[in-house]
Amino acid sequence: MTTGVSTSPSSARPRRSRLRTWLPLGLAVWVVLEIWLLTMVAGATNGLTVFLLLVAGFVLGSVIVKRAGRRAFRKLNETLQRGGSPSEGSSGNGFLMLGGLLLMIPGLISDAVGLVLVLPPVQKALGKRAERSLDRRLRATADGGLGDAFQQARIHHPDGKIVQGEVIRRDEPGDSPSDPTEPRPPLTG
């Protein structure tokens, strides 16, 4: 049965974000590159060398993650004992943990990126860049992004008009004229 209104399939389906579109392709390319590089190294040396490289990367990554976790826990304890907030003592371990996790993933490209992330100058540079990016986003949100969202969170009538009203709290009996314990006056027509 047709209603005379044409609907296209593309208008019914929301658009995919760029991340959801390109992330699977990027992961597939990364996996193919990792496997290709491992086979190239295995062809140039032997399979035992590749196996030892992968085991060494896993062991080194697990040591780094364990050490970063202990350091984060120790800093958190010191900060809480001084009476500070927990967010003060948690800086500096994020990139170290990420580097350790990348070392634990089998592959030589992830190992190289993980080793670079473990270096303190790289951690400081990336930390400053992430901080600037976060500050820019917070300023953009404060300039009108979040305020507009709160303005749009009003209750609207189906015809688009704003419904005016007020909220009345009924904490104790007798606070409002429409208290359910009091008898209501009869309706007159």
Characteristics:
mainly alpha, 189 residues, elongated
Describe the overall structure.
- By secondary structure, the chain is mostly helical.
- The chain has a domain at 30-142.
- The protein is built from six helices and no strands.
- The chain has helices at 9-12, 18-44, 47-82, 94-104, 108-118, 120-151.
- Helix 3 packs antiparallel against helix 4.
- It is elongated and about 100 Å long.
Give the ordered list of helices and strands: HHHHHH
State the major sheet: none
Number of helices: 6
**Terminal-residue CA separation:** 47 Å
Helical content (DSSP H or I, runs of 4+)? 55-70%
Question: What is the strand content?
Answer: under 5%
Oligomer class? single chain
- Overall shape: it is elongated
Low-confidence stretches: 147-153
The mean pLDDT is 77
Count of β-strands: 0
Global structural class: mainly alpha
Question: How is the topology of this model organized?
Answer:
Elements: H1 9-12, H2 18-44, H3 47-82, H4 94-104, H5 108-118, H6 120-151
Helix pairs in contact: 2-3, 3-4, 3-5, 4-5
Give a summary of the structure in a few sentences.
The chain has 189 residues and is mainly alpha-helical. It contains 6 helices and no strands.
